[in-house]
Amino acid sequence: xxxxALTAVSPQDWEQRQExxxxxxxxxxxxVRNVLHVPPDPTEEQGxxxxxxxxxxxxxxxxxxxxxxxxxxxxxAQVEQQWALHVLEIISLMFRDQSPEELAALGQGxxxxxxGEDTQELEAxxxxxxxxxxxxxxxxxxxxxxxxxxxVLQGLKSIGDRDVVFHKGLHN
Length: 172
Known about the structure:
It is a single chain. The protein has 172 residues and is mainly α. The chain has helices spanning 2-7, 19-37, 54-65, 67-76, 84-94, 100-139; strands at residues 150-157, 163-167. The chain has a domain at 2-100. 57% of the residues lie in helices and 8% in strands. The longest helix is centred in the last third of the chain and has 40 residues, at 100-139. The radius of gyration is 34 Å and the shape is elongated.
């Protein structure tokens, strides 16, 4: 199908895409656009509240088939700009039953809930990190060792025939 026509051709061969592949892609996009363009018929769609409309079922079928991912690909791929108007028209038809206010409120509600969950997760991680830091502090010995280290300076002789031994604190 359409996905196969796009993915079977490697990116470097896209310029040499067959004319029939281009026609196939355009025809499938036009078919999807025309199917989504069919207006709802209230007499045919008298279902129980909560039933999915024909339009919603078509959208679900497009999602299951992977067409929504393909549309995202066509909309974002630099080399596929020739399909931009078809994709834009399909996307506008996908959202035709929703009002902009409903879509904006839905997006904010989801983003707000996700933000709240993220904040709670971060706070829990911070509390756990503080508890681990306190536990590590309690495990350390309270008395600090003042021994910084001893170094042998080879080639420099002290009194006698031995090398110089130098004592130095780590802070220096």
